[in-house]
TrEMBL record:
GO terms for biological process: carbohydrate metabolic process. It comes from the Bacteria. Keywords: Glycosyltransferase, Transferase. One of its GO terms (molecular function) is carbohydrate binding. The lineage of its organism: Bacteria, Bacillati, Chloroflexota, Anaerolineae, Anaerolineales. The keyword Transferase applies. Residues 12-295 form the Glycosyl hydrolase 94 supersandwich domain. This is Glycosyl transferase. Residues 313-740 form the Glycosyl hydrolase 94 catalytic domain. It comes from Levilinea saccharolytica.
Length: 818
């Protein structure tokens, strides 16, 4: 069952009914000011940091689920009885005669009609601006004139979203709003900080306004039936304490066929530096710098151009890689939606969505590093800065804060470190950046440790400490210590209890043994191989040789202590017992070590890799993707940790944890099995799952974190959409390993591993300022490649970077043995 359709020409997903299984959301903004908006205008906005600079209040786990947002109301002032509705359906949920929501790249347009009045509202964040625009177009399709009232409504958050949600004894008294010349200024906390405020403006003369929520809504009323809207009269309320909000009331007269455009602007502003803490300053907001911005974006021509600029920005960005393959779902995701999600995950890591509050966690170290694997292709300069930001949260030991706040860029002390896989991801992020950009100067950038302790060293030294961190923490089997957890945050194997009812996080048990991770072992082999290539490039042969010896030793350990006979084990708990073994009643096989070890090349030479992937297909494969483990844990086990706290088939306990699926796709490609690689890719491809939207429930244009597994009550049901490492890894898997267009230090590698029935496909790829036009044609069975560049045959499978200012290169690749 579908709830809409893809409009590939306009780069939009069109939702045709408002009651989607879950709120289907979009993201606004790409730089500093961001918003999340649903198909019924729910959501919230913030400046840089979803916790510390939240503009719009949002209630998670609300009923209905999509509570609070960017609301407009229409009222028919000529009706005998009060008649009002939401043209976005929420929050009044009044039946509409027509409805569409077009989620585009960086904007959302919601259109509806009721009783002859059409309303189309476009929401977006202009490039380079710290504001959002609500561009409302009204048309009277009736045969008679219409007198309407238009109300806007937004509820302000008191900036720190965590404090806003719990410190009510104070927050019910600090709300402060000022209204000057029709502009609503939210300045709660301004008395003590004097540095930032929000504003809400309207392009039309006002019939009234409200800034106090309870005055606007009325006693015991909700957003579905505001008293001010029902009565058609604003209260002119001024919030001093209680619940600050912003609402404009505009009266409109429309002749038959007449249209009217009303623009609302909600924004964030900081006073100039010398105005922020002037002891003699007044409490009046400095409007000299903000009024020109407000006036500019209340002009229709400016708004139209700003939207056109966003659309062009995204068309330009998408041109970085365009493909034409035999599969429409691969084309759609590669060319449009996967790239779009790469930007979203880069901006937010795992912090801000409808399923992440932006309060409990900031930017993840491991998460952001993996997001860079795909994002480096979109914007190398922003990727460069993110790498340096991540490295600055590393400690002198080589460990790293698991998360940091985007506004301060400081590590999150509440979460801390000791996730022992974190440091190694920095190596993979940096080498991906080097291959894409060719910017070797980044390795010499001086980067502090932990931002707070004063010491610093080159980025290259940070990478070295990442690898040393693993080598200095090996367990009794020679495998890396898992610490608090590895990639699977819920696999907490260093828990034990001395007394009933008590549990502890520790690094050793009473016998001096420690929990070990096979997964980190595979990750080390992968990262070490990448680092060796960097050393070789820099002429550091001794360091390369030393690291190579460590890598070879780790491979040997993985092939012994890490091997269970038919697949790779997952870990050893603090008692020295294996997980992911045929010895286990539950959790016999895990997906992570199979994917990571084979990606790292472990087992390719002796059949272990093939055996492990065959076991994945037999035990973990489902029509909805590859589950993370099998069988699921049926009860909670203290010594295994949080993973066993979930019901079977959900999250880390046996769901299709989508993030790991591309690892299997890459692993299958490494074995040359193109049919299997593409099959796994399509099982979790959102576009391919659009036909079962009533089962999948999440958006058909964005990857979700998880899909309920085969042991779940509702297999195939997705949860936690948008913010997932699946976006980056899926993009890497399909473009670099299945299509096989892979950046290297010296050029583009052309090594497709596609199904035998793919006769041809085309790729356009911009790489280091050069546009490559690549045509791949199958001439026989297998994956052998023969290349022609500008009509001339070349040795090997790497197309070098042209010299002499050449900006276009044409490549023909002949696939298979004729």
């Amino acid at each position: 069952m579908r709830f809409g359709f893809f409009d590939d020409l306009h780069l939009e997903y069109v939702i045709t009914r408002p009651d989607t299984p879950l709120p289907w959301i979009n993201y606004l903004g790409t730089e500093s000011y961001f918003g999340i908006i649903s198909n019924t205008a729910g959501g919230y906005s913030f400046y840089k940091d979803a916790r510390l600079r939240r503009l719009i209040r949002f209630r998670y786990n609300n009923a209905p689920l999509d509570g609070n947002g960017r609301y407009v109301y229409l009222r028919d002032d000529d009706a005998a009885q009060p008649d009002f509705w939401s043209p976005t359906w929420q929050p009044t949920r009044t039946p509409l005669d027509a409805y569409t929501c077009r989620h585009g790249l960086g904007y959302t347009r919601i259109a509806s009609q009721r009783k002859g009045i059409t309303c189309e509202t476009t929401y977006f964040v202009p490039l380079g601006q710290d504001l959002e625009v609500w561009d409302v177009h009204l048309t009277n399709q009736r045969g008679t004139a219409a007198n309407l009232s238009l109300f806007s409504a937004v509820e302000f958050c008191l900036w720190d979203a965590f404090d806003d949600a719990n410190n009510f004894q104070r927050n019910y008294s600090i709300g402060e709003v000022e209204v000057v010349d029709g502009v609503i200024y939210h300045k709660s906390e301004y008395r003590e900080r004097r540095d930032h405020f929000a504003y809400f403006a309207c392009s039309e003369p006002l019939a009234g306004y409200d800034t106090q929520r309870e005055d606007f809504l009325g006693p015991y009323r909700g957003w579905d039936a505001p008293a001010a809207v029902e009565e058609g009269k604003a209260r002119q309320s001024l919030a001093l304490g209680w619940q600050p909000m912003g609402s404009h009331h505009v009266r409109l007269h429309l002749e038959p066929g007449e249209s009217k455009r009303v623009i609302f602007v909600l924004g964030y502003h900081e006073n100039p530096e010398n105005d922020k803490f002037d002891p003699a300053g007044t409490q009046t907001i400095n409007k000299k710098t903000v009024l020109p911005v407000i006036r500019r974006f209340l002009q229709p021509d400016v708004v139209s151009q700003a939207l056109a600029d966003i659309q062009q920005y995204w068309r330009n960005l998408l041109q970085g890689m365009q493909v034409d393959t035999p599969n429409e779902h691969a084309n759609r995701m590669i060319n449009i939606w996967n790239v779009y999600q790469l930007m979203v995950t880069f901006n937010f890591s795992r912090s801000s969505s409808y399923f992440e509050s932006g309060v409990g966690r900031g930017m993840g170290f491991r998460d952001s590093a993996q997001d860079l694997l795909g994002f480096v292709q979109l914007d190398a300069q922003r990727a460069r800065q993110r790498i340096l930001d991540l490295a600055a949260t590393q400690m002198a030991s080589g460990g790293a804060y698991h998360q940091y706040q985007p506004l301060t860029k400081r590590g999150n002390h509440d979460v801390g470190s000791n996730f022992n896989d974190d440091p190694l991801w920095l190596v993979l992020a940096v080498t991906a950046y080097l291959k894409e950009s060719g910017d070797w100067s980044i390795l010499q950038e001086q980067v502090p440790f932990d931002l707070e302790h004063g010491s610093e060293d080159s980025l290259l030294a940070h990478m070295e400490r990442s690898l040393n961190y693993t080598q200095e923490r090996l367990g009794p089997h020679g495998l890396p210590l898992i610490g608090r957890a590895d990639w699977n945050d819920c696999l907490n194997l260093n828990c034990f209890s001395d007394k009933p009812g008590q549990s502890f996080q520790t690094t050793t048990n009473r016998e001096g043994k420690v929990a070990e991770s096979v997964f980190i072992g595979g990750l080390f082999v992968l990262a070490a191989a990448e680092m060796e290539a960097v050393y070789d490039r820099l002429g550091l042969t001794a360091k390369a040789a030393e690291l190579a010896a460590q890598r070879v030793n780790m491979r040997a350990v993985l092939n012994t202590a890490g091997w269970d006979g038919s697949w790779f084990r997952r870990a050893y708990d603090h008692f020295g017992n294996p997980l992911g073994s045929q010895e286990c009643t539950e959790g016999q096989i895990f997906v992570e070590p199979q994917g990571m070890c084979v990606m790292a090349g472990v087992g390719l030479e002796d059949g272990r890799a093939e055996s492990a992937l065959n076991a994945v297909r037999e035990h973990l494969g489902t029509p909805h993707g590859v589950v993370v483990l099998w069988p699921a844990f049926k009860q909670y086990y203290l010594h295994i940790g949080e993973i066993s706290s979930y019901p079977p088939g959900y999250k880390e306990n046996g769901s299709v944890f989508c993030h790991t699926n591309p690892w299997i796709q890459i692993a299958e490609a490494r074995l040359g099995r193109g049919e299997r690689a593409l099959d796994y890719y399509l099982r979790i491809n959102p576009s391919a799952r659009e036909e079962i939207s009533e089962v999948h429930r999440c958006e058909p244009y964005a990857y979700a974190q998880m899909i309920a597994g085969k042991e779940a009550v509702k297999p195939g049901e997705a949860k936690n959409s948008w913010l997932t490492g699946t976006a980056a890894w899926s993009y890497v898997a399909v473009t670099q390993w299945i299509l096989g267009i892979r950046p290297t230090f010296d050029g583009l590698k052309i090594a497709p591993v596609v199904p035998e029935d793919w006769t041809a496909f085309d790729v356009q790829r911009t790489f280091r300022g050069v546009r490559y036009f690549i045509h791949v044609e199958r001439v026989g069975a297998g994956n052998a490649v023969r290349l022609e560049v500008e009509g001339a045959p070349v040795e090997g499978d790497v197309v070098g970077i042209p010299s002499g200012g050449q900006t276009e290169v044409r490549v023909r690749a002949y696939l298979g043995t004729a």
